[in-house]
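Design a sequence for this backbone.
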C-alpha cells in the first residue's frame, strides 16, 4: 500500500497479493505537482519469519516511455563500416590464436567431419543453422543483455524486451565449418553488445549523482565475449570495427572493472574477483596485441588471479564460502592463467599456485554420498560444474576431485579415465572448521558432516554447530543450501531456524547468532571406520541468547548417533532442536521416523519434550519438513538418539 500526500490531496495505491518475487507498482499522481510525504505499508501473507526488500522509489513520465524505447531501436542497423564485405576471401583462422589455436581448430574440424559422416550434422552445424534467424541488433539496449531476463537490479519490464542473440561459440562454428555467414553473425553479436550504452544491469548503477554500483559481473561477461570474438572472428572486422570494439573494451569494460577491483578488497577473498578478472584479462590479452603498452596491466591482472586463489584457499585446502563458490574461483582463474600462458608462451603449470593442490581434503569433506556432488553448505548449491571438475582432476590428480568427476561421468554414461580414492573414514579441516565421518553400514554408507567457523568467514549461514546426516544414498538431515538471490526467501535459508540447530525460543524477536561470526567456533573430533565422536562449543556465536551451548555427537557404531546439547539461556524460556529433511516424516512409537528409499532413521524424543512436524516454504513453491523438538526449560540437557537401519522392502515409500 502506497499513500502520497500531495498538493492536490492524498493519492493511494493498493496492490493485489504478490504472485512473483519481483514487481513494480505505479501510483498515478493524477495531476499533482508536489509530493509532501510518501507512506509505504507491506503486509505479509502469513504469520512467521519472512524476508523481502524495497529496491527503489522513482518518478516517471509514462507518456514518454515509447519515446525512450524508440531511442534504442537499432533493428535496421547495418555494419558496413565495421564489417568487411560478405564476399571478402577469408582464411578461416583465428586472428591471434589466444582462445583457439590452429591445432585445436584442426581437431574440432576432424571431430565435426566424423560426426557429420555418421549422422549428417554436428553441434557446429546446429549452431550455424540456429543463427541464420538471429537479429542481435534487436537486442541493443541502454543496458547490455537486459532483454528476456532480469537481474536483481534491472527493471521488471526488461523481461518483455527482445533478447540480444548470439554467443562466441558462433565464431567457433564459423571457423570449423568455414562458414562466413556464421562468422559474421558472431561479429554482429559483438558489435551489438558494444552498441549497448552501459554494460551494466540497470539505471541504479548510472543514476546521476549516485555512487551505487552493481559490481562487474555483466561487464566481465560482455568484455569476455567481445574479446573472444575479436580473436576468433577477427578476419571479418574492418580496421574501424576493430578499433571501435577495442575502445569499448577499454572504456566500458576494463575501466569500470578496475574501479571495482580497486575499491572492494573483499572481492579478492571470494569468488567475485575470479569472475571480474576473466573479462578484464581476456580484453587485455587482445588489446596488448594492438597496443603493446597494455602489457604491464595484463601482468597486474595475472597477479590478481594468483592472489585470489591464494586468498580464497585456506592453508588446509578448504574454502570458507561453500563448495559452490570454490567452483568458479577455480574455473575462472584457471582459464585466466591458461590463456595468459598461451598468449605469452609461458608454462601453465608454473603459473598455478601450489595451494590449489591442497584442496583434495576439502573435496573429501564436502563430497556427498547421495546423487548430489557436494553437500550444499553456505550459499552453495549441491552441484559442481563438470568442466571445473575436469580442471581439478588435471591440477590435483588422484584426489577425491577425481572421484567426483568420475561420479558425474558415470551418471552421464561417459568414460571415467582415472582411478580415484575412497572417502576417508574421518577427516578434519582445522582452518575452516569442517569435520566429516564416512563409514559403512552393511552395504550402505553413513556420512556425518559438521559445520564450524573460522573467524570472520563470509558468505556463510547461521549454522555453527549444525550437521548433515546422509545414509543409504539420501540426506536424512539436510542443509538447504541456497536459492536464487533474486528471491527474497534466500535470506530465510540462512537462518538458524532452517538448519539442524538448537535455537532459543520464547521471545518476540527471532533468535539469531552473530553472522558473520568474528570468532573461531570449530568442532574437534576423532573417528575411524567404526566409531565417530565430535564436540563444539558454540556459545561465542550466541552472546545475546546463550550463556552456554555445547553440542556433542557420539556414534560408537555407524547405526547409532547421539546428539547431546547442554545449554543455559540468557534470553528466552525454552529451546527447540530443529532437524530439516526432504524425506517423508511421521510420528512413531519410537519418536519420529524418517523414511528413505533404502533406509530408516528413528529419532528419539526425550520424555520432557514435545515434538511437532512442520512443512515450511522454500523457493519456487517447494517445501521441506522440519522436525521441532521443544524443551520448556531455560537450562538443561536435550539429548536425542538417532538409530539407522535398512528399510524393509514392504516399508519402502511408493
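Sequence:
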Amino acid at each position: 500500500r502506497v499513500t502520497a500526500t500531495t498538493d492536490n490531496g492524498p493519492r493511494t495505491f493498493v496492490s493485489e497479493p504478490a504472485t512473483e518475487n519481483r514487481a513494480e507498482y505505479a501510483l498515478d499522481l493524477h495531476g499533482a505537482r508536489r509530493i509532501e510525504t510518501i507512506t509505504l505499508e507491506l503486509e505479509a501473507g502469513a504469520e512467521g519469519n519472512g524476508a523481502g526488500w524495497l529496491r527503489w522509489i522513482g518518478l516517471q513520465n509514462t507518456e514518454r516511455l515509447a519515446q525512450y524505447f524508440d531511442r534504442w531501436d537499432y533493428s535496421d542497423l547495418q555494419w558496413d563500416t565495421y564489417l568487411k564485405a560478405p564476399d571478402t576471401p577469408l582464411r578461416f583462422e583465428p586472428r591471434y590464436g589466444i582462445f583457439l589455436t590452429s591445432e585445436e581448430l584442426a581437431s574440432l574440424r576432424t571431430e565435426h567431419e566424423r560426426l557429420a559422416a555418421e549422422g549428417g550434422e554436428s553441434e557446429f552445424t546446429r549452431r550455424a543453422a540456429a543463427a541464420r534467424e538471429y537479429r542481435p541488433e534487436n537486442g541493443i539496449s541502454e543496458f547490455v543483455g537486459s532483454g528476456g531476463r532480469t537481474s536483481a537490479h534491472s527493471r521488471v519490464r526488461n523481461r518483455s524486451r527482445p533478447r540480444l542473440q548470439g554467443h562466441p561459440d558462433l565464431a567457433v562454428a564459423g571457423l570449423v565449418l568455414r562458414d562466413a555467414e556464421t562468422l559474421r553473425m558472431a561479429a554482429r553479436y559483438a558489435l551489438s553488445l558494444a552498441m549497448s550504452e552501459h554494460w551494466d544491469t540497470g539505471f541504479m548503477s548510472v543514476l546521476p549523482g549516485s555512487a551505487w554500483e552493481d559490481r562487474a559481473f555483466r561487464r566481465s561477461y560482455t568484455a569476455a565475449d567481445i574479446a573472444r570474438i575479436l580473436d576468433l572472428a577477427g578476419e571479418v572486422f574492418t580496421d574501424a570495427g576493430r578499433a571501435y570494439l577495442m575502445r569499448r573494451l577499454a572504456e566500458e569494460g576494463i575501466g569500470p572493472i578496475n574501479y571495482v577491483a580497486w575499491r572492494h578488497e573483499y572481492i579478492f577473498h571470494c569468488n567475485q574477483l575470479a569472475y571480474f578478472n576473466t573479462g578484464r584479462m581476456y580484453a587485455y590479452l587482445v588489446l596488448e596485441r594492438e597496443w603493446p603498452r597494455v602489457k604491464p596491466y595484463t601482468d597486474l591482472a595475472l597477479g590478481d588471479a594468483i592472489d585470489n586463489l591464494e586468498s580464497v584457499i585456506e592453508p588446509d585446502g578448504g574454502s570458507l564460502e561453500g563448495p559452490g563458490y570454490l567452483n568458479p574461483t577455480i574455473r575462472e582463474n584457471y582459464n585466466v592463467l591458461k590463456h595468459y600462458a598461451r598468449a605469452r608462451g609461458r608454462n601453465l603449470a608454473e603459473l598455478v599456485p601450489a595451494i590449489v593442490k591442497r584442496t583434495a581434503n576439502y573435496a573429501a569433506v564436502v563430497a556427498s554420498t547421495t546423487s548430489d556432488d557436494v553437500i550444499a553448505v553456505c550459499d552453495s548449491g549441491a552441484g559442481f560444474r563438470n568442466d571445473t571438475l575436469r580442471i581439478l582432476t588435471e591440477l590435483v590428480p588422484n584426489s577425491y576431485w577425481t572421484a567426483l568427476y568420475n561420479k558425474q561421468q558415470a551418471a552421464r554414461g561417459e568414460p571415467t579415465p582415472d582411478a580415484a580414492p575412497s572417502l576417508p573414514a574421518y577427516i578434519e579441516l582445522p582452518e575452516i572448521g569442517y569435520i566429516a565421518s564416512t563409514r559403512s553400514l552393511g552395504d550402505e554408507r553413513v556420512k556425518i558432516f559438521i559445520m564450524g567457523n573460522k573467524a570472520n568467514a563470509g558468505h556463510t549461514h547461521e549454522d555453527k554447530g549444525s550437521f548433515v546426516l546422509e545414509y543409504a544414498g539420501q540426506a536424512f538431515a539436510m542443509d538447504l543450501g541456497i536459492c536464487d538471490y533474486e528471491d527474497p526467501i534466500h535470506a530465510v535459508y540462512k537462518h538458524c531456524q532452517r538448519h539442524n540447530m538448537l535455537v532459543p525460543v520464547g521471545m518476540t524477536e527471532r533468535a539469531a547468532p552473530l553472522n558473520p561470526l568474528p570468532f573461531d567456533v570449530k568442532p574437534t573430533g576423532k573417528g575411524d571406520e567404526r566409531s565417530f565422536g565430535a564436540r563444539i562449543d558454540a556459545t561465542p556465536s550466541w552472546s545475546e541468547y546463550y550463556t552456554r551451548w555445547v553440542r556433542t555427537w557420539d556414534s560408537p557404531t555407524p547405526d547409532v548417533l547421539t546428539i547431546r546439547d547442554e545449554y543455559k539461556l540468557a534470553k528466552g524460556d525454552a529451546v527447540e532442536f530443529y532437524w530439516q529433511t526432504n524425506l517423508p516424516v511421521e510420528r512413531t512409537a519410537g519418536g519420529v521416523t524418517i523414511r528413505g528409499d533404502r533406509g530408516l532413521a528413528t529419532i528419539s524424543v526425550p520424555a520432557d519434550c514435545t515434538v511437532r512436524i512442520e512443512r515450511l516454504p522454500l523457493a519456487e513453491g517447494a517445501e521441506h519438513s522440519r522436525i521441532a523438538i521443544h524443551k520448556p526449560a531455560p537450562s538443561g540437557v536435550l539429548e536425542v538418539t538417532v538409530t539407522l537401519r535398512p528399510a524393509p522392502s514392504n516399508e519402502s515409500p511408493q
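The CA atoms of residues 215 and 264 lie 9 Å apart.
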